[in-house]
Amino acid sequence: DAKTTQPPSMDCAEGRAANLPCNHSTISGNEYVYWYRQIHSQGPQYIIHGLKNNETNEMASLIITEDRKSSTLILPHATLRDTAVYYCIVRTPQAQKLVFGQGTRLTINP
Amino acid sequence: EAQVTQNPRYLITVTGKKLTVTCSQNMNHEYMSWYRQDPGLGLRQIYYSMNVEVTDKGDVPEGYKVSRKEKRNFPLILESPSPNQTSLYFCASSLGPAGYEQYFGPGTRLTVT
Lengths: 110, 113
Hints:
- The complex is a heterodimer of chains A (110) and B (113).
- Helix content of chain A is 0%, strand content 45%.
- Chain A has 110 residues and is mostly beta strands.
- The termini of chain A are far apart.
- The mean pLDDT of chain A is 95.
- Chain A is globular, with a radius of gyration of 13 Å.
- Chain B has no helices and 11 strands.
- In chain B, a hairpin with a 2-residue loop joins strand 5 and strand 6.
- Chain B is globular and about 35 Å long.
- The relative contact order of chain B is 0.33.
- At the A-B interface, strand 3 and strand 4 of A face strand 5, strand 9 and strand 10 of B.
């Protein structure tokens, strides 16, 4: 399983774009990049996932580099409610479990 | 509303007293799993189930049992709880294995004294 590396914490001003990086240099060809977040001690929430093309949904955008060794989750207009721990996970679709690392604690400041 | 529910949300119990944490989903999902979350250790999978009557161990199954008699329910059973099972527990469900979008429950905070 590919290992991921994320900064332990980040700050962002409310209304600005939050860009959360993730390094996954050992990713294999059939592994996807998934992002989840956990607000306080609530259940983790799925955000987005992708294989190699950039993806966008109503919550966020996912930019994956051409060599797929890193990716960036973008929250285009961060709000205070986006304060959470964000997890970058690399898995194959057939994996039986998600492996959560320590994630990035994102704090949105007013 | 599509959701995963867990009960109870909070529980304080004593060592050795059997307990069950229930998990139910209303999305007709085939795949369900249990995780525990501990400070510094992150979320770790306890058990998972690919479908009715099909269950398998995750990374930390010791001291836990599960059953999947119905598609919607996946209870977590602690036959003889011990203090090291004090943790925050999450149930999750999805259409398929973990690569599918996982829907997590709100969590059950268990304290074993």
